[in-house]
């Protein structure tokens, strides 16, 4: 399921969340400059309910806001793979990932790295695995 939301500048911390079954994804950020931008968040669950995905992006491909911080957090699952991009694919252009030192990935979140992040963000992608119940 895909939901649209506004990314608002002004330096305040905002967050947007979506839930699906036992899972949820929350995008928290603060940004400066420009005007509101329309972004999208997509959350999905695999057929066997074992994988949860969360993607957050600007459909236009590039954000012109100046992000001072960001964090995308999942609940109900542990991150298997995550990536952050300064530019999202649109038309013939492809995704441009942030440099490895600009962000960090933990078991439950992908977030900017203080002092290293260069303030550009246009897309975040997370794939997380459900904890298996031990018998």
From TrEMBL:
Return the InterPro entries for the record.
MYDGF
Q: Name one GO biological process term.
A: positive regulation of endothelial cell proliferation
Tell me which GO cellular component terms the UniProt record holds.
extracellular space
Q: Which organism is it from?
A: Promerops cafer
Q: State the encoding gene.
A: Mydgf
Pfam annotation, one family: UPF0556
According to UniProt, the name of this protein is MYDGF factor
């Amino acid at each position: 399921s895909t939901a649209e939301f506004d990314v608002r500048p002004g330096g305040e911390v905002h967050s947007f969340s979506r839930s699906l079954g036992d899972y949820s994804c929350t995008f928290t950020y603060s940004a400066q400059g420009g005007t509101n931008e329309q972004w999208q968040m997509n959350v999905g669950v695999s057929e066997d309910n074992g994988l949860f995905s969360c993607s957050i992006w600007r459909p236009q491909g590039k954000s012109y806001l100046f992000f001072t911080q960001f964090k995308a957090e999942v609940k109900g699952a542990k991150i298997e793979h995550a990536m952050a991009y300064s530019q999202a694919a649109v038309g013939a252009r492809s995704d441009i990932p942030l440099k490895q030192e600009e962000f960090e990935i933990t078991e439950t979140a992908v977030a900017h790295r203080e002092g290293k992040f260069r303030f550009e963000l246009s897309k975040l992608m997370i794939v997380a695995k459900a904890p298996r119940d031990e018998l």
